[in-house]
Specification:
globular, Arc Repressor Mutant, subunit A, 2 domains, GAF-like_dom_sf, 7 strands, DNA binding, 47% helix, alpha+beta, Beta-Lactamase, two-stranded antiparallel ribbon, 5-stranded antiparallel sheet, 16% strand
């Protein structure tokens, strides 16, 4: 929540800290709350979380929408991050040398294996797509760049769950468990999730058919240091094209890409496989 001082128009600052522009600081706080929400949010809820009265908050949202930092649904009236915010985020990612290389690797794997390959990073909203190269044939449903996958009910999400510290994934895990309970759906126990995570960490590539996209999915984490994935690379093999020979070809490309990127990050390839706390 935005501090009461900011909500009243008097931003709080530490002693000796340079004076900033109050309206810009408040707008950044509003954007940060929208980003942390993980999905679209209504004016009333955003007003409650920011501490700004709706009329004042609306003026900020009008300006942020005008510049593409925020978008408003014409159907629901809800607010979410806009195209400009996405473009800035992706531009920042591309300035990281290893991430730039990772994006190039995605295209190379697709060209070599003809598989659909995706690059995901961890953000406040979960496993987030930053690059997608379509294979042949392409999947029937194509996710959009900037979209986030479920943590537990996607192969990519489970790989992040296995390699990230429990503290980083706890909030999203609770949110998904609560949503499943509210909808009357079953949700894996902590013990079963811990076993899944242990199995993922014990193998170079996590092969699964229990994923969002149809087909066989091979998922591999690229680590820059233990318990800190730079990204996760996901290769999708369409139904009927996931024989042992095809999987071996894709696996070879994924491992080569992982090794190259981890060397760029300075990760000790001879270090023991990282472990994390159970979820």
């Amino acid at each position: 929540m935005i501090s009461s001082a900011i909500a009243r128009g008097r931003p709080k600052r530490k002693k000796g800290e340079p004076v900033g522009i109050q309206t810009v600081e408040t707008a950044m706080e509003v954007l940060d709350i929208i980003a942390q929400e993980g999905s679209a949010i209504g004016l009333s809820e955003l007003s409650r979380k920011t501490g700004l009265i709706p009329s004042k908050l609306h003026r900020y949202l009008v300006t942020l929408t005008r510049y593409g930092m925020v978008k408003q649904s014409v159907i629901t009236g809800m607010y979410d991050l806009g195209a400009t915010a996405l473009r800035i985020g992706l531009s920042a990612l591309n300035r990281h040398d290893a991430m730039s290389s990772a994006q190039e690797v995605v295209g190379a794997i697709t060209a070599t294996t003809h598989s659909t390959v995706a690059l995901y990073i961890w953000t406040d909203i979960g496993p987030t797509l930053v690059r997608l190269e379509l294979g042949s044939p392409p999947p029937p449903a194509v996710p959009r760049v900037g979209a986030a996958l479920p943590l537990v009910h996607s192969g990519t999400g489970r790989v992040f769950l296995a390699h990230l510290p429990a503290a980083r994934t706890a909030a999203l895990l609770r949110k998904e468990r609560t949503a499943a309970k509210a909808d009357g759906l079953t949700f894996p126990s902590e013990a079963s999730l811990a076993q899944v995570c242990a199995d993922i960490r014990a193998n170079e590539i996590y092969w699964t058919r229990d994923a969002v996209l149809p087909g066989t999915v091979g998922v591999m984490a690229v680590l820059r240091k233990p318990s800190d994935p730079l990204c996760v690379i996901t290769a999708v093999l369409p139904p009927g094209k996931a024989g042992d020979k095809r999987k071996e070809q894709v696996a070879g490309q994924l491992v080569a890409a992982r090794n190259m990127l981890q060397r760029e990050c300075g990760l000790d390839m001879d270090a023991p496989a990282p472990g994390t706390n159970p979820p």
